[in-house]
């Protein structure tokens, strides 16, 4: 379980600014906090701290470290190895530095495949450190595995520097045992609270007599000499301790308050990041829309230039120079102009006949005059309609000829020596002579996705020896 004090400590350290701030990048501080929290949860014996680290070039920086012990199992017995895990400035993108931290009664095994004489640890997991998948928990597990195969530290037993000056001539047959007896490497049970280290050349069930071989536990310290203290010094020390406790309490309250504020600021930072992403997205959309509007503006400006040019060219012209308002618009060809005139005359006569009929109903026009006017207008209307029908037929034929010239999928076909090879589908063939040949063309084309039917005159009457016409229906 993660202790709140440890979490508050990490939040306080990682949020500091100024000269005392730890030299980690802002985008990795949250990941560093997660790594340390997970490490202390899995291994409570490791405690996050800050300390000054001196590089080989003499530079000193304030870095985070995980100081404590890690468990390792050697010959069925669990021991604790003191280590220090330094989180360098480039962590977690680069691997941390791990040192074994031997006490005064411990020595580093020489040679060791993973620990150099200075205590620096080098294992494959550190050499193959990969960001962001690698983490401190897996690192400690790998350290425990490698140390269990070959322990890096050993504890040596030292002789008592103050032997008993008054040996008892009658020794007790049952003296008090050593408070830290050396365990049997072969048969000892595992204990997670052990803090000793196996020696390099231990045997299973025996130790050399009258000697001090290396032991997994340090020798007991000599008894302290009781001395008399000055009461004023005791009072002073107690007062200092009381003041320190009060300061610690005030600092804890202050830190708790600041931690609450920090959590609120972290939440606000997350909201601001979301808003930043939304604003960036909206800004990009507005930029795209602005580019589209600029393109449309260019098109409008081009069209405006065209219209202004047309106005400049036609500004001096007057409608009075035209014979009639209809002359303001020209037809594309003579047939179209003739069709327009015939249709206009036909519709005008139709309106005139309607007006005469209304005038006859109200008695404004005599009946005999009405009949004469209707007869004359009807004759004129007939000629206009007949002319319009001929013009329409001529236009249709001209359209077919133009299509035949543009594409082979449409056209008028020539009749030569009774051989006719059309590229279209003909429903029925009937050959005969003496009449004008007509055909009903039905064109189907998959590429053009079009179906057109025409009734077209393509031949003339012939004699018995001449070319026969063809009728297709």
UniProtKB/TrEMBL annotation:
InterPro entries in UniProt: ESCRT-I_UEV_domain, ESCRT_assembly_dom, SB_dom, UBQ-conjugating_enzyme/RWD, UEV_N
GO molecular function: ubiquitin binding
Subcellular location as annotated: Endosome
Keywords: Coiled coil, Endosome, Protein transport, Transport
Compositional bias annotation for Pro residues: 160-184, 210-223
Family annotation (PROSITE patterns): SB, UEV
A GO cellular component entry from the record: ESCRT I complex
Chain coiled-coil ranges: 276-303
Location of the UEV domain: 13-157
Pfam family, one: UEV
Xref: SUPFAM superfamilies: Endosomal sorting complex assembly domain, UBC-like
Chief localisation class: other
GO biological process, one term: protein transport
Keyword Protein transport set for record: yes
This protein's record includes keyword Heme: no
Stretch list, region Disordered: 151-232
Every SB domain range: 333-401
Low complexity: compositionally biased ranges: 188-209
Family: Belongs to the ubiquitin-conjugating enzyme family. UEV subfamily.
PANTHER family xrefs: TUMOR SUPPRESSOR PROTEIN 101, TUMOR SUSCEPTIBILITY GENE 101 PROTEIN-RELATED
Protein name: Protein ELC
Organism classification: Eukaryota, Viridiplantae, Streptophyta, Embryophyta, Tracheophyta
């Amino acid at each position: 379980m993660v202790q709140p004090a440890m979490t508050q400590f990490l939040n306080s350290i990682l949020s500091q600014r100024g000269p005392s701030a730890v030299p980690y990048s802002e985008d990795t501080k949250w990941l560093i906090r997660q790594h340390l929290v997970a490490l202390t949860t899995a291994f409570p014996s490791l405690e996050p701290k800050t300390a000054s680290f001196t590089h080989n070039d003499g530079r000193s920086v304030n870095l985070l470290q995980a100081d404590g012990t890690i468990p390792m199992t050697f010959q069925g017995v669990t021991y604790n190895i003191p280590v220090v895990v330094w989180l360098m400035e480039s962590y977690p993108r680069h691997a941390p530095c791990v040192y074994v931290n031997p006490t005064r009664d411990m020595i580093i095994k020489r040679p060791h495949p993973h620990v150099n004489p200075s205590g620096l640890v080098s294992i494959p997991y550190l050499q193959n450190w990969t960001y962001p998948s690698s983490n401190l928990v897996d690192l400690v597990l790998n350290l425990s595995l490698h140390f269990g195969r070959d322990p890096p530290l050993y504890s040596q037993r030292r002789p008592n520097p103050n032997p008993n000056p008054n040996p008892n001539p009658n020794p007790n047959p049952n003296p008090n045992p050593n408070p830290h007896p050396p365990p049997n490497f072969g048969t000892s049970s595992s204990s997670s609270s052990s803090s000793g280290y196996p020696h390099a050349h231990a045997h299973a069930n025996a130790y050399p007599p009258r000697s001090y071989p290396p032991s997994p536990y340090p020798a007991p310290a000599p008894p302290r000499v009781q001395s008399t203290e000055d009461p004023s010094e005791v009072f002073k020390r107690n007062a200092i301790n009381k003041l320190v406790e009060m300061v610690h309490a005030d600092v804890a309250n202050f830190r708790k308050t600041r931690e609450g504020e920090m959590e609120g600021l972290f939440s606000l930072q997350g909201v601001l990041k979301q808003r930043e992403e939304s604003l960036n997205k909206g800004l990009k959309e507005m930029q795209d829309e602005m580019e589209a509007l600029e393109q449309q503006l260019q098109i409008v400006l081009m069209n405006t230039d065209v219209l202004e040019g047309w106005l400049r060219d036609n500004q001096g012209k007057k409608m009075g120079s035209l014979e009639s308002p209809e002359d303001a618009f020209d037809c594309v060809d003579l047939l179209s102009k003739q069709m327009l005139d015939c249709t206009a005359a036909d519709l005008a006569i139709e309106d005139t006949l309607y007006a005469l009929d209304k005038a006859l109903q109200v008695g404004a026009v005599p009946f005999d005059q009405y009949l004469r006017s209707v007869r004359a207008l009807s004759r004129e209307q007939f000629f206009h309609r007949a002319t319009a029908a001929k013009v329409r037929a001529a236009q249709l034929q001209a359209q077919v000829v133009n299509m035949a010239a543009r594409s082979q999928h449409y056209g008028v076909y020539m009749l030569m020596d009774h051989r006719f090879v059309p590229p279209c589908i003909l429903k029925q063939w009937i050959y005969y002579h003496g009449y004008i040949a007509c055909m009903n063309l039905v064109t189907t084309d998959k590429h053009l996705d079009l179906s057109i039917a025409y009734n077209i005159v393509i031949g003339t009457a012939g004699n018995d020896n001449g070319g026969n016409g063809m009728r297709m229906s």
